[in-house]
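Re: export button greyed out
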Amino acid sequence: MSTDHLPLEPTAVAGEMHPSRWGDPARATALPEAARGLVEAVFGLDEQPAVADVVVPRSVLAPAHLDALRAAVGAEQVLVDDATRRLRTRGKSTPDLLRQRAGDLSDAPDAVVRPADHAQVAAVLAVAVEHRLAVVPFGGGTSVTGGLAARREGYAGLVSVDLVRMKRLLAVDHTSMTATLEPGLRGPEAEALLAAEGLVLGHYPQSFEHATIGGFAATRSSGQSSAGYGRFDALVVGLRVATPRGELRLGSAPASAAGPDLRQLLLGSEGAFGVITEVTVRVRRLPAEKVYEGWRWPSFTDGAAAMRTLAQAGLLPTVLRLSDEHETAINLARPDAIGADGGESGSASGCLMVVGHEGEPDLVAARRTAVASVLTGLGGTPLGEEPGRAWAHGRFDAPYLRDSMLDAGVLVETLETATFWSRVPTLYDAVRTALVDALGEPCLVLCHISHVYETGCSLYFTVAAAGGSRSLERWQVAKTAASDAITRTGATITHHHAVGTDHRPWLPTEVGELGVSVLRAVKADLDPTGILNPGVLVP
Amino acid sequence: MSTDHLPLEPTAVAGEMHPSRWGDPARATALPEAARGLVEAVFGLDEQPAVADVVVPRSVLAPAHLDALRAAVGAEQVLVDDATRRLRTRGKSTPDLLRQRAGDLSDAPDAVVRPADHAQVAAVLAVAVEHRLAVVPFGGGTSVTGGLAARREGYAGLVSVDLVRMKRLLAVDHTSMTATLEPGLRGPEAEALLAAEGLVLGHYPQSFEHATIGGFAATRSSGQSSAGYGRFDALVVGLRVATPRGELRLGSAPASAAGPDLRQLLLGSEGAFGVITEVTVRVRRLPAEKVYEGWRWPSFTDGAAAMRTLAQAGLLPTVLRLSDEHETAINLARPDAIGADGGESGSASGCLMVVGHEGEPDLVAARRTAVASVLTGLGGTPLGEEPGRAWAHGRFDAPYLRDSMLDAGVLVETLETATFWSRVPTLYDAVRTALVDALGEPCLVLCHISHVYETGCSLYFTVAAAGGSRSLERWQVAKTAASDAITRTGATITHHHAVGTDHRPWLPTEVGELGVSVLRAVKADLDPTGILNPGVLVP
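Workaround output, generated via the alternate export path:
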């Protein structure tokens, strides 16, 4: 019954990503011939080869800047070569990739510096303050909201602070079940270090293979198993942060009434308040068993109601996802998405739910029985473990497919939001309608519920439409329409992708002008000269 | 099996508290004769009758101030009589009570104003800004950390903003399982309104009968059933706050990555950033069953290890408390604390644990069995429901006993903290030693673990020592020693009593000078003229 599909071994740690594609270049795939035919039939092929041999803009840093940075981190850790700077340009949103593909490297940093520890990060910030350099903290480079595209006007240069050398497991407390990690650890690296101690963090966003501990904290990340393990902000018990005004060390107890929870002010601060240099997280014992299974629902509404019942009964499994009718149909059409019983379920309509349980075998068994009893009672049909296995197998692969679609000239992107249960139908309809209206037919809008709470859930949309050379401008129109629809419905502009620069225009609607004023006040206090990720997060 | 001891009926809502005693005057009790003898034998009797007919300082408000306040809330809602102002003087810490008993009413507000809604609160703040009046938000008046003792120097007067008229249940969302409550609702009032909808909030601090929804939010309160229902900060999904710079409305989704969680910056803000005017909370269905039972452990260490096991296995009951050997002995010596099997357990040594389960009968039964299995396996002895019933019966009564002890001249006070599991023994010893050293023998220090998390727990200490006319100064010495011991150990200065003025000196140690600077920056932004609860929370 135990099925461990997670590529958690240290060997799974990926290297540098391609500057205009996702992930490990060795895992890039062309569209299968059948899919290519489908894409051509629906959208038309309008292949967009990336511009080759793009020149990276010249670094504007003066010798004095470089000398000061070298004094802070060591000469060999200040890199100004084109290849390194190209790889630290922007993140991995579709607009980011489209710009890189079109040869626009205007956001390339002037230098990449690689501090070894907290003290060196602090030294870099001091240099940046003195020389008025903009600083962009860089973890896995997987931002999909423009979080790495800082403003450079008004600065003497822009420096990417790459945390790639800060990869230590600093402390493990087996009694308190906490671990202190450095921010540069990628997901699989952190899990490998913890696994050697018999522990697991349990944080698996789609970017897991590349994203880092520091990035999870800075963006309030949520993972595919967060129903069971908790969102990253719930996993963090302590933070150490380097700021231009000194160090913050937060987290003296599991819970406290000693004023506002300042940890929750740094979580989600996206490099605009400081650079996170240590993260102390709650850990669990490595699960002895993992089982993922599929359930079929007559409709998205039925499946969502079942999720709500589980959450409000305190019966959440470790993984709980529900695809709408559109996403289910696409998923079932992919030959690798359904296993042995694919023929039967592939022909069925309705919606696919993935339910996963991780933990000790007896607890997994008990919970699985209890959850199955509720789901069966509410009209769900069990599909066995094959759909769960298929989901687990491909859980980190969607961004590779996006690259293939972009190659074919199809505009593909995702966006997500969250709301309270009573507003889910309104939000779902509003975002779908906004996207279809903005992009026109043919337009494919898929949705799944990716995270579930007692009081509500998140909706994760995938959009595909004809794009070709107009992809970037078409996406910007669609993104604006969807974001307007989200805020009009009273939902959050982002449940787990952060604000970056892309969501910044909608933040005042969400937290109010006064909320933005508070963020500005905090930033002004911690970063009085405004060197930290200028223009990111704070409008 | 079902045992509902909670006085949750609307009739349980208490009226005004006595200015220098806890709670409902009708429930005040003299020390039982046996206890009186014990107190005399241990500490000596040094009865301290309260000073009678204390004159309340004259209100310093000018007619123009009063007119402006009357324009904001209506003439009949601006009260300057002595009785009303006496009842809004300070909170209910032992130093607060000792000062009132000694006739010191120097902290009495100059006026008590009673706004009816958010708009009137905003209007009062505008008047306060214009006339430079200090504003103290007043809910249940149960602060035990000097949270109502604002600084008045530099202000034209001090106004208590009594939220007693803001007691509406504004909205219920049965689908999302949320409710929006006004801040002036006391615990039993809120539960009665929710019970009429079949819902429960489940927040039962010891101050439950008097404390208010706004106070729970402003102080990051934690309740006796928070293991099951969650701390108050975890129950809050939305807040509306009136500030001198306008309104904050926070909480667009169950969870969000749209920057830092500003809700968590207002929770615990203790009236220093704004006045909370609406609180949207997660609610649950009224539990059909409640059962509380006792368990005996050979030692505090054994019991604490069992709690840790339950928390880390994800098996927390609704209520989980463990008294140390000293508290257990005192508890068992009280004839009303043990029921039918009291003879047997009363003669036993060791430590008493209370385990409570609330919910649907089948879930209660399943969880009870699972918890009992773990506890038995770890060496716990079940004592049946009588000790649980006794605890539930007296769960809100300790402050009445304190009054009786203070009458007898015995210094009695409580303090609490929290830390990670691995530091619990060090913290426990450090605080005990600090208290005994500061107060000298005879000195009774009792402790229980009041709240449990995966990564740690809170320790709640009760201290009794000879005091008499020197009670106030002796307590200040002991409180300082205990607080120094707490921060030296790296624990939090308060797990659920807030900072107020009493814990303020230790806040910089806990969050750092830079953390304090951030709090100052937020306050300066929201309250630029500094009228809100001056001197509370922010050092």
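Chain A has 19 helices and 18 strands. The button fix ships in the next patch.
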